[in-house]
Structures
1.
Amino acid sequence: MNHKKLPKTGIIIENLVKRYGTFTAIDNISLEVNAGQIFGFLGPNGAGKTTTIKILAGLLKPDTGNVLINGYNLAEEPVMCKLHTGHIPDRPFLYEKLTGDEFLRFIASLYNLSTETFEKNVDRLLTLFDLTDWQDHLIESYSHGMRQKLIMTSAFMLETPTIIVDEPMVGLDPKSARIVKELFKNHARTGGSIFLSTHSLEVAEELCDRIAIILNGRIKTVGDMESLRKEASLETSDLEEVFLELTEAEELTEVIEALKNMD
Amino acid sequence: MSTLRYGTRRTLLLPMLLSAKNRFFPTGSFPIKSIGVGIFCLVLCTVIFNVTLRVITYFHAQDELGVILSLKIFQMAWILIFVMLIFSCMVSAVSSVYLSQDNEIVFSAPITTPELYFMRYISNTIYTSWMMIIFSLPLFASYGIVFHTPPLYWLLMVITLVSMACSATCFGLLVTVILINIFPARHTKDIILYLSLCFGVLILFLIRLLKPEDMVYFDKYGFLIDHLSKISKPAAPYIPAGWAANFLSLYLLDLEIDWLLLGLILLTPFALYFLGEGAMKMWFFPGYSKSQESFGGNTKFGKKRKYLPNTWQWVFSKEFKIFARDSSEWSQLFMIAALVVIYLYNFKLLPIERASFSEEFITNLIAFLNIGLAGFIITSLSARFVFPSIGAEGGAFYHIRSSPLSIRRFLMYKFLFYVIPFTFLSLTLIIISNRILHIEGPMWWISFLINLFITWTVVALGLGFGAVYADFKTENKTVTMGSMGAVMFILTATALQVVIIFIGANPVYRIVRRWLNDHVLNLSDLYFLTAWVLISIAISLGLVIYYFRKGINMLGNS
């Protein structure tokens, strides 16, 4: 199957709600990620980012609301949605007793990836991530960064039109981080969409076309950098200032001052 | 400073103590699980106590030879428990001292090697010996009742048991610390595992070759005592377990306390503790450092072949490779092989000629009951291999869940992967045992087909329960085997087999009796048999579908 030929209409999230017992992790959020767009999803710890990502990846069932991925409804056609989605989690859980190459073949088979696409992409990506010499070693001997790079390789080799990423740069060296950024940009340039959750405001500022900030399970604001600055009334500030302003972390200034005065 | 150091020792035990507290007495909820486990242990202890009490009382009723035989078993039990504790401690010590996930936090903290040793010693002693202590207490206590000892025996028994547990842990830790300096940690773990398995296999064969069924024949006691003496005598005087056995035997027989043996029993754990601490000071850091270097190794695997998209083939391949590359998994096959040999050997030793019924009737009856026995073996092995296979996916299970492969299909592939070897095993058990029993005619086919059907059902149930009770955080499959889910699976699968055999007894009896008498099959008997088969299929399918669906739902929402 050539995923490049699939319709690329991005992601639509409508009135999504997820509760854990009495705690509402996601409270009626609606978002839209267009094809060819890198969408940043920011928020403080516990705001609901990972829950949203897990729902989009088909790992968690929402209580109410709809998710459409490339035109398919996640609740009604989960297999088609997953076929169109690559998922890069924040923690690289892998099968320790498989080699890198075996792991990639296993994942490719799960997605029924064609032999041509597999062979075309895997060698290129392994070379890009300096994993060629390690592909026949057991994953249990990989470092954290190598595992993360292997996950990246598995996600990009699939050529899915949509990629969902949770904290992409954790454990990556500067060279690999640069490569990943370029891969993301290239994916968007060729019409793919990326939903990216990150704590790194530099990454978000550099990569994302649009950014949503989530706080206590609700979308605080959505827009490009310019509109976010306007909303925070900080026309010349960087994303960090904007983020702190919009996530109501004003008290942080006092904390920083107190820390500066500590001997 | 010394206060701070003692404080550190207490602090080092906090993770273990608090984890245990949170596990058994969770804040804000009634500890129903802990109470359940407590009741289960109590029931099991009562059963062990009553069975041992009856056996020892029976021996005593025979003659002086019976008393000697019971004391020989007493000595052998002490030696076995001691050696098992050492092996169990060694396997646990490699993981907890060198490969544990909390090592990076603990070893980078400002604590001394003796403090570390203290921490690992206490946790290893508790983890590896609590079960042995609890379940051997009723065993040894029953001797006190039969020998009419005063309450002092109970105190001496508890002291001796705790001392043995401490000595075994110290010795196990000491040997492990030395071995890690010779081999890399993972290889040491494998070596200890193989040794433990060899020991387990040896014990199985020793016990089987002892022919315990001969214990009901008084004329064979002489042979048994001779046999037991050969096994336990040469080692006994030189190991702590021998001191424990001799010390308590003397008290049981003459109510005398051998102060030298008591001194040895009390002082050995301390002597071994300080020896272990010394070894730890000398060799721990080089060994730990080496265990970090040996992570994974540089072994390369496999030659590259052309990639072809084939989901089921790759799921099979993944399962097989993970199994074949994990020594703690495939090495269990030796134990299974030993069990199969002993299982089949039992049929050779059956005293069929002593039975009052016709030999043909008895062999057919055994073949029918053998369906349940073989089924129980399949159930136990499913609890060990099939049930934990879903949870064993660990964190990596999200690859399956976020892929287009549905959980239903994934479970089906898993089922096919496990059902093939299990079918082979169950057919081996049934066909060979039927051959040993000279079974022919309808009983051969009944036992063959029903066993096949039970095997498939049990494997499917194992997967269904495994999906419902999947624990993706457990690192050790053996631990999963003792979980609530595994117990529920074993109980359900066993109950199902009991029901199948119970309701099948009458139809099978009618068919077999007519066949043995006249070598013909009657149509009405066949109706009964068909009804039994259909009811069994309906019950089994109902259970499998229910637990598969429940498992798919649970995995989908986990």
2.
Amino acid sequence: MVTTITRREFIKSAPLVASALTLPAWMPRLAFAPAQSAPRGDTLVVVFLRGAADMLNVIVPHGETAYYAARPTLGIPRPDDNRAKSDLRAVDLDGFFGLHPSLHPLMDSWQAAQLAIVHACGAPDESRSHFRAMELMERGVDDERGPASGWIGRHLATLDTGNLSPLRAIGLGALTPRSLTGTVPATALRSITDFHLRGDPRAIAHMRATLDALYTEGDSLNTIGRETIGILDTLQALNPDDYQPSASAQYPDSDFGMSLRQVAMLIKAEVGLEVAAIDLGGWDTHFAQGSSEGLMANLLADLGAGLAAFHADMRDHADKLTVVVMSEFGRRTYENGSLGTDHGHGSAMFLMGGNVIGGKVHGQWPGLAEGQLIGPGDLAVTTDYRDVLAEVCLKRLNNPAIGEIFPDYQPQIKDILRA
Amino acid sequence: MNLSRRDFLRLAGLVASSAALSACTAVYDRVAPLTEETTGLPPLAPRDFAALNRMTFGPSAEERERARRIGLQAWVEEQLAFDSIDDGALDLRLRGYKTLWQDADTLHSFSDLLFDDEDRATVPNELREAALMRQLFSRRQLYESVVEFWSDHFNITTEKGDCFYLKTVDDREVIRPHALGSFRDLLWASAHSPAMLTYLDNQDNRAGTPNENYARELLELHTLGVDGGYSQSDVMELARCLTGWTVKEHFWRGQFTFNPDWHDKGIKNVLGMKIKPNGQTEAEQVVEHLAVHPQTARFVVTKLARRFLGEESADLIERGVQVFLKTNGDISSVLRVVLLDGLTSDRSITPKFKRPVHFVTSALRQLNAQVNDFGPHLETLARLGQLPFNWATPDGYPDRAEAWQGNLLPRWQFAFALVRGETNGTTLDLSAFVQSSDPAAIADALALVLLGAPLPAAQRDSILSAMSDADTQTELPALLTAGILASPAFQWR
């Protein structure tokens, strides 16, 4: 029988191992900050829309004439625009803003006041570069000089919740998102069934014993190796095929739907999941993005159906769950000549959960008229994305170490969530 | 019993740097007596092994032998002159992929099925299999490594629109002919590449309301870099220069064409240059300017250093920039400086985390695997997140360890499936490496093949104890091979 080092033993020995003297410079440092202790808060699900989603067509300012002037072809018709078929019009939220019609499944959570929107939200960076913007946003910093770890990674590192699960943080997909980078290892999980070892029991036993002998302690790779072995053990008994979502929630048959379904399953199985990061790509719609129908409408249908199913499925867990949807920046107010939109600035965020102050569009709307736009014609940012994330950390994740999570920023709490 | 951190560091240090060797004498002493007779492989200094691992998709016995015989510097020169390396055996194998040599129009007709449907799988599958076959079996290993570098730098996914067949043309006519040639020619070809113009939406860039997508990435990702000193206005003005650069849709489908009706006829200002109205040549003037811009030189050399050395040493980059500028961007000359200074000098080699492609190819190459079906390996790469030509965003597959480290399980599954003979179309002959029935000697021999150095005794014993019930003749070599492939040490190059 091979002895397995438990995670608890490992954590105990880690600070000893991690002394700077023994680490060559190239090795990712394990700098264990003195952790705050607090019971764990909500499970956080962060959905990142990669490619700069056109939030002006997601949460449509149908009360703005400037919106329709800038988007003669791409604009989403007003909720009362009789010239458009009713299922192609914006779904009114508050008389000024409306949801893209593909997002109508989200109206249940909106009406239950469990969905909030923060409009004209974003980062100060104005490079309009996807890669710069995503990197800074996922690191939660103003410029390259900030810490290299991700904001979620620093949240995990600064809070001791007593949770030693190898599934404390996962990225859904093959690569680990930058936001999860840090001293607490985050595993990439494409599907739970990947973690089911099948075949000859003797061969599996050899593989397990070998991996146990190989992955021991020390640098981040060894740590992730041990976590992965731990996940193998944890997930053996979970079969996604047997999973029955509550309230007959229907997840879309897509990667995104699969990801949310598995997150729901992990939450209900109580395996210690605290943070799940999900990437959803395809939002860089310079060309033929469509309006109420088309390319982007299809992406939104996936997003809306997925989130709505998750909301229904997690009804009994809503009080301990916060979902954040974000993107690196918004898109130009006026459409380009190829029926698309170019890179802009102000974006928006969605928050979903039992303690969201929902049914409301938060934030100060800067307007789309001449003189209200910035740069080449972009929505201004009136709420820094870190104001929102800091409030999530403070009120829902029990983490007061905001100065470490967002080191060069003083967040303002905008009361989007209940403590 | 577990491997101690000290042992792991010894191994990492050994593979990592010759400077560390003196501190690891215990291990080094054991390297020396291992000879061709005991291992079947020519002895090679661990540092040279590490260097070869950077310039190949995993050093095979042939490269090890060649580098040992002529020396690493001469090996680099030989590889840079890739045209004179005979690759006939590979060329013969590649002939099976008919679509590699077809023009865009033919590729499109081929994919065009009846009833308005398209076969969007055959052409990109052949391209992916060919890429993997070349990485595994080309004797021009450095050239293929540079091809991979530019395929990331000028990233195009086959999943966007007509790129599913246009990328085959881009690979053949843009990336491969210029990979070790002139950066200016490479950039010029890429700018005129129908695949690139489609991927970054320039094929529909028209006067009045220009599409900025390609213009921005041309500045940000292909030449100057995000800190290269351009502004939003430069992006918009360059987009105006590029209006009308498009791709034919009907006759000669998939060819580059300039549509003067879509072109913005006004004066433009790009990077302080006043561009007079002159049709297609306006953007070409900017491309020429960007190709030899000092900021482009710095951006490209820094990326090359990061890819091949895993670090960005300021003095080395400075020398690379000087060569870039002096030779008008001769890629071969720039790479010579980076490789000779970075890998064949006595500078220490910083370990670099293997991306999935390198993990898979190095395992197969170093074990001299016979591969007759590339499909299962492409499936592994998909699970690992690095299927060739499948990265959606124009930045190319990440070159950072943290992006890849969280996904170890598919690597382990690959390793164990490989040795169990469960990978369809791939066979191993481990007996070629194992001349002894002593478990420790078997472990040493296999580690030398895969890691370039024997395992530290403690780690070796620890692994062997996990396999104590395995039979020594067949099971043990297989399990040891899988164990080393799955080990932390093999994840670094």
